[in-house]
Amino acid sequence: MDTFAQRRSEIASRIRVFEVDQPGPQVWKRNRLIELGFGVPDWLRLVPVDFEASVSWSEQLAAAGFDSRLPAVVVSTGVTMYLTKDATAATLRQLAGLAAGSTLAMTFLLPTELLDDADRPGLRASESGARAAGTPFVSFYTRRKC
Question: Cβ contacts of residue 46 below 8 Å, gap of 6+?
């Protein structure tokens, strides 16, 4: 659940922010922002997308007013572990089609066996919590040497 638009509204209000998330969490977030008095300002677009569906998220972004001809900053943190590797690959292929000058910041999780001993309990706790919430981690990634 991204909070950039609420935490840094002085910056976010000068740009157009598109938050892409699963449909259920997007509905919950919209309702919660309204309940708390934040509302959903004109510069913030909440775009519900199911990355596992065959529907193109870029088409859903365009319908929300996103102009793929302009450079964009795309931040995908805390997402890849919830998607299949096929969905992540499809997302990266679509991102590759963004305008020149676009930037991507993305995170991923290493499998438990590749973590330092000190980091394993934290990953196990996060994984257990995600599974209990009905959103299990489904993908981990290893480092590759080129």
Answer: 19, 21, 26, 29, 30, 40
Q: Which amino acid is at 6?
A: Q
Q: How many whole angstroms separate alpha carbon 58 and alpha carbon 99?
A: 13
* Encoded tokens for 133: 């919430």
Summarised one tens digit per residue, pLDDT across range 42-58 is 999 999 888 887 677 88
The whole model's pTM is what? 0.81
pLDDT, tens digit (0-9, with 9 covering 90-100), for 56-94: 788 889 999 999 999 999 998 889 999 999 999 988 998
Lookup: tokens for 113 = 């066996």
Q: HSE on the CB side for 25, CA within 13 Å? A: 13
Please state, in angstroms and rounded to a whole number, the distance separating the CA atoms of residues 85 and 40: 32
Beta strands of 17-129 (E only): which ranges?
Answer: 17-21, 44-48, 73-76, 103-106
CA distance 100 to 68: 10
Largest separation between any pair of C-alpha atoms in the chain: 49
Place of tokens 């993305």: 106
Pull the structure tokens for residue 43: 């510069």
